[in-house]
Amino acid sequence: MSQLPKLGLLVLLVSMTSDTFAEDTQNLSRGELSAIIGVVNKYIYRGGEKSDDPSVQFGLEYAYNSGIFLCYWGSTLNYDSSDANQDHGFEHDFYIGYGRALNES
Q1: Strand 68-76's sheet: what is its strand order?
Q2: Is residue 10 part of a domain?
Q3: Between the CA of residue 28 and those of 14, 25, 65, 97, what are the distances in Å?
Q4: What's the domain range around 58?
Q5: Who has greater pLDDT, 61 or 83?
Q6: What is the mean pLDDT of the chain?
Q7: Confidence band for 13, pLDDT divided at 50, 70 and 90
């Protein structure tokens, strides 16, 4: 009877680790889409305070398997909408890039 608890523990441990040996599935997509959203209590850009009020920030990125990526990043700035020199409380950034790890061939 004393072997039964040991056998049960062994079966439990083996069943918990069995998916470690599963084969990876093939990724058929052309890339990966990711997004991020956050709320900050103060917007600071390059050391200068843009807004002392809370801001909502959002980013969206699509990275192709080739290494090319397309991105959008935006933030509320809570500027006074009557100020003609500002973007009426929003910042929009679009950018494109290329990146690869140095150890990939």
Answers
A1: 31-40, 55-64, 68-76, 90-98
A2: no
A3: 31, 9, 10, 22
A4: 23-98
A5: 61
A6: 75
A7: low
